[in-house]
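Try it yourself: sequence plus 3-amino-D-alanine, in.
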Amino acid sequence: MKIAVVGATGLVGQEMLRVIEQRELPFDELLLVASERSVGKEMTFKGKTYKVISMQDAIDQKPDVALFSAGGSTSITWAPKFAENGTIVIDNSSAWRMDPTKKLIVPEINGGVLRIDDRIIANPNCSTIQMVLALGPLHERYTIKRIVVSTYQSVTGTGKAAVDQMMNERAGKEGDMVYPYKIDMNVLPHIDVFLDNDYTKEEMKMVNETKKIFGDDTVQVTATCVRIPTMGGHSESVNVEFEEEFDVAEVKALLSIAPGVVLEDDPKNNIYPMPINSHGKDEVFVGRIRRDETQEKTLNMWIVADNLRKGAATNAVQIAEFMLENSLVF
Ligand code: 2RA
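Structure, out:
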């Protein structure tokens, strides 16, 4: 199988390469693709040196699968060109996520909708992926009525320049400002741009993508997405109301066997998920599970995952794995 990683020089692109290596995604040939300014740059992968090539060169080599993390406008322009050539594009940008003709996939939740003729497949937003992975089994068992989620998102979600801003501020150094305000020793209730309804694009991604992945428009979601000065992953405080009554012990039992989920829930011994522990891991960590004592059929929980791993690179590679395992790549 010939694989292309498009956006190979970016934070997520480099994480995709790490995940490909660690999960031993089988390939015969690897193409590293980036913007014109990076063409010719050398990168080492599994002890072999590769030269970064251009989009058109990659298209001409007809990769079987192209893992994209190059931004929405680049994907809009180039993904169809790869797809027309027979390449399966798995795109990490928001460009195709709400396109009714494209699938939005978390393999453990809705991988079964994938078909052999799918050519552009959308990878959901990181904050959506970790939430639906944890809530999927509970939706199946108790039917979710409403989700209220507050997120605490790592600066790595913005990219390297944001990490640099935080670290410069922490070191008392001057540097470029990615955010409208200081991020270190601060929090910003502002991720992506504000829309006419006074929610941010990030918050509406969680609303709309959750419905699409669950295939259920009746699931009501409201979100507040916050940037915090941390690395290692995104954290989410989730309040979820079900149609049916539940038993907390059964909820924990369901989560303890849910694919891709790790239960870390022993508050009496200070055991709960934290981004410092999720960093570099592919699982979604769930804890602080407790009944909402103010409302019937309602649960509180805490969900943490590395936004560059399961939130982006790993989920994209797992979509490729799913396609391979189910003979959907030819
Ligand atoms: C963020 N989810 O955290 C967005 C994009 N990665 O900034």
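One thing you can check immediately is this: The pocket of 3-amino-D-alanine is lined by residues 125-127, 153, 157-158, 191, 202, 307 (CB under 6 Å).
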